[in-house]
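2024-03-11 09:14:02 INFO worker-7 job=invfold-0412 stage=load source=structure_tokens
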């Protein structure tokens, strides 16, 4: 399978190329406007096919594309390839507004080409090993599900905060594809004109969902808590945590020597993506969740923007 990788910044070079270049049956084509980066990485990974203009990829016999460029470029690049009926992977977020997200999925449906979004947190092995049905939306036994992602000294503009960063915890708890702010409790803190913290909580049946981000926290951290009846899982990283039950605490962890990127879900996500490319089809429930999380992010953005304006 011949896969084009567009955009060779930090996320591509740190999270994707180290895995992609080791996967059997995958042949890569690199694309970036930065010629020095392009030739350096092509030499490092012994890749012979590359270009500086993504439109040139149509002449290089590719089966699918992976877009790792800046969020502001996602819509134009993804539209180009979907219009040519090429399977397309885009790093989250798909776009920084729901209108573009909706248009891209309309294009994908029109051209019968899968549009995949890189939400790696859906694929974290340790979480899915202990809570195998949660990411499939089976929450009947879940009393509460909280995901918080914190950063140090990094308040930001509203759009970047919500779409580029907060969408991580928001989508992670949005396993049932909630798409509106109806009956959702929203709390936001600002630092001047910038957003510093955002908390979103809602209840579905007996299950409470809570996404939180504090960008003026003491350090950069990510924590997850899932409560069942008299049983609680707490993860303070993607590779370790504790199970609390019967008044006891039991440590749980990935096996020793588990590669970092595997623990963060990138291996499992890429395997899932290539299965989608082979089948040329993305499951409808995945599309629903992708749309719902971006629609929820859009409504959060509009709500807070309105409050700031007034």
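2024-03-11 09:14:09 INFO worker-7 stage=emit residues=310
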């Amino acid at each position: 399978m011949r896969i084009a990788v567009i955009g060779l910044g930090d996320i591509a070079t740190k999270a994707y190329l180290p895995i992609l270049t080791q996967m059997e049956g995958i042949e890569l084509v690199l694309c970036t406007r930065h010629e020095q980066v392009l030739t350096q990485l092509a030499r490092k990974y012994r890749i012979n096919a590359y270009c500086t203009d993504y439109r040139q990829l149509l002449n290089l016999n590719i089966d699918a594309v992976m877009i790792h460029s800046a969020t502001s470029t996602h819509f134009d690049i993804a539209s180009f390839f979907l219009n040519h009926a090429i399977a397309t992977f885009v790093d989250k977020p798909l776009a920084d507004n729901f209108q573009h997200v909706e248009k891209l999925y309309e294009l994908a449906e029109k051209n019968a080409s899968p549009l995949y979004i890189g939400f790696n947190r859906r694929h974290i092995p340790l979480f899915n090993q202990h809570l195998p049905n949660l990411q499939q939306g089976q929450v009947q036994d879940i009393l509460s599900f909280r995901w918080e992602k914190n950063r140090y000294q990094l308040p930001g503009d509203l759009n970047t905060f919500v779409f580029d960063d907060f969408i991580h915890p928001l989508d992670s708890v949005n396993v049932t594809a909630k798409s509106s702010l109806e009956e959702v409790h929203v709390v936001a803190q600002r630092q001047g004109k910038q957003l510093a913290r955002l908390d979103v909580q809602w209840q579905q049946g007996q299950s409470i969902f809570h996404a939180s981000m504090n960008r003026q926290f003491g350090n950069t951290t990510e924590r997850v808590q899932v409560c069942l009846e008299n049983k609680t899982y707490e993860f303070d990283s993607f590779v370790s945590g504790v199970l609390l039950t019967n008044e006891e605490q039991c440590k749980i962890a990935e096996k020793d020597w588990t590669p970092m990127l595997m623990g963060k879900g990138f291996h499992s996500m890429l395997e899932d993506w290539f299965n989608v490319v082979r089948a040329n089809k993305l499951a409808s429930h995945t599309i629903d969740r992708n749309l719902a999380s971006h629609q929820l992010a859009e409504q959060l953005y509009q709500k807070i923007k309105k409050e700031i304006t007034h």
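2024-03-11 09:14:09 INFO worker-7 stage=report msg="The CA atoms of residues 124 and 250 lie 20 Å apart."
2024-03-11 09:14:10 INFO worker-7 job finished
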